[in-house]
Amino acid sequence: MTPDTSYTDPIQAMLAQQNFFVLDGALATELERRGANLKDALWSAKLLIEQPDLISAVHFDYFMAGADVATTASYQATFEAFEKRGYSRADAAMLMRRSIELAIEARDQFWANPANRIGRQKPLVAASVGPYGAMLADGSEYRGHYGVARQALMDFHRPRMAVLAEAGADLLACETIPCLDEAMAIAELLPDFGSISAWISFSCKDGEHNSQGERLADCVAALDAVPQIAAIGINCTAPEWIPSLVEQARQHTAKPIVVYPNSGEHYDATSKEWHGVSNAQDFAQQAMRWSQRGARLVGGCCRTGPEDIRAVRQAAIRAGVLSSVA
Fold it and tell me: Biological process GO terms, please (predicted)?
């Protein structure tokens, strides 16, 4: 792949002003907590059609809680999934762009109030790029082993990434990636989309391996030289595995480490329900331990909410890794 030195890196721009970057929390499970029925192959993207105002409200509440970024409702928004619902490619692209517009509108509403700017940088909008497994809607993003060639993965990701990259987001959030091959497919595509940068975060099954069973350290090392990848890390993984994973990632890249684990519960892709016991009760305290190990972008994934993000920001201020004054 030909290096592109003209890309923009909003993460580094923000980290130049503050040492710690607060991500948002879950979108889909927060929408469910507010009454949305997402037992559907489209998951949160279903509400781009049915209840876009609820998506905006969640984004706004995360900004109010202290998030420096909104991750859009495009994780499961794919041409294939919308086509199964009878939507044309043009309509599907419009809905993908709408996911970014909703986040931007919520960000602009938040930023319009001068009181909200105290101690803050203007938040970013990250366009969520879910994995191939999310389109399958069978939990494959937590298993990997797609049995699909890299070229097929590139063919799947290319058209959606093209729409999202041109729709006004500050960067792409390529998340819950279960295997290195898919991460490399995304990395190979990035130069096709101009100057936009991305973070890539893997789903992991333990303290050493991604969901497919490859060493996270090897994945990070393979991605380290890609200039348009602005951060590398882990998401939708049990909190207990994060300290070890962050330490391994830190040894293989100088890029910022991004982490946003789930609550520690387990997802049943058949019933589309979460089971087990949360181990995120002291989420903010755990976040500070991840920061001490080298994570600079920290938030939450499934089953975390605005109160968790508010607690993370407050803990970061108390710990001195984030200033309360701009």
Answer: methionine biosynthetic process; methylation; S-methylmethionine cycle
Residue 266: its H or E element: strand 266-268
Specify the number of domains making up the chain: 1
How distant, in Å, are the alpha carbons of 40, 44, 55, 202 from that of 28?
Answer: 11, 5, 9, 18
CB-CB contact of 61 with 106 (8 Å) = no
Tell me, what amino acid is at 74? Answer: S
What are the distances in angstroms from CA 24 to CA 34, 70, 88? 17, 6, 31
- Residue 1 domain flag: no
Q: Domain range for residue 234?
A: 10-319
Report how far apart, in Å, the C-alpha atoms of 167 and of each of 60, 96, 97, 98, 170 are: 19, 9, 6, 9, 9
Q: What is the pLDDT of residues 116-168, one digit of tens each?
A: 999 999 999 999 999 999 999 888 999 999 999 999 999 999 999 999 999 99
Domain CATH for 261: 3.20.20.330
Q: What is the pLDDT of residue 37?
A: 83
The answer to the question of whether 204 is labelled as a binding residue is no
Please tell me whether 236 is known to bind a ligand. Answer: yes
pLDDT, tens digit, 9 for 90 and up, residues 205-254: 999 999 999 999 999 999 999 999 999 999 999 999 999 999 999 999 99
Residue 324 within any structural domain of the chain: no
| 5 domain residue, yes or no | no
Mean pLDDT for 169-182 is 98
**Model-wide pTM > 0.85:** yes
| More confident site: 303 or 293 | 293
Is 219 known to sit in a ligand binding site? no
In angstroms, the CA 224 to CA 186 distance is 14
First-to-last alpha carbon distance for the chain, in angstroms, is: 39
Q: Is residue 3 part of a domain?
A: no
